[in-house]
Specification:
Distance between the termini: 21 Å
Strand content: 35-45%
Largest sheet: 8 strands, mixed
CATH architecture: Roll
Number of helices: 3
Helix content: 10-25%
CATH class: Alpha Beta
Low-confidence stretches: none
Strand order of the largest sheet: 2-3-4-1-5-8-7-6
Number of strands: 8
Radius of gyration: 15 Å
Length: about 140
Amino acid sequence: MQPIEIDHVAIAVEDIEKAVSYYQNSLGAKLVHRERIESDGVEEALLIVAESYIQLLTPTSESSPVARFLAKRGEGLHHIGWRVPDCAAALEEVKEEGVEVIDQKPRPGSRGTTVAFIHPKSSFGCMIELVQEGPAAN
């Protein structure tokens, strides 16, 4: 698998408005996208830093994986997004290497991307998200 670059660093937060304000006002990041992702039970805010993003995530339901993460670990690093040219090919390649994955096939992500997650057990405790710009080719 050949990642292009880091797409984003995702941070789980309790109060997304407070977090957005901090990253904008204290660190100079620019808010470029907000989205509620019902399928994942989260609201996200993307702040651009150079060619990558800081993705702030807050749960919209108690059953959300981010809600469980916050309850268990508190606020902080949730995952790192690796930009790849072809999410399906990258996912198949890591599966062939014996890497444990969360998603067996790519799925729609925020801002029109295609994504798949690698389990943190396979990545030294850090969940990895494979991110392809745009929808998967059919």
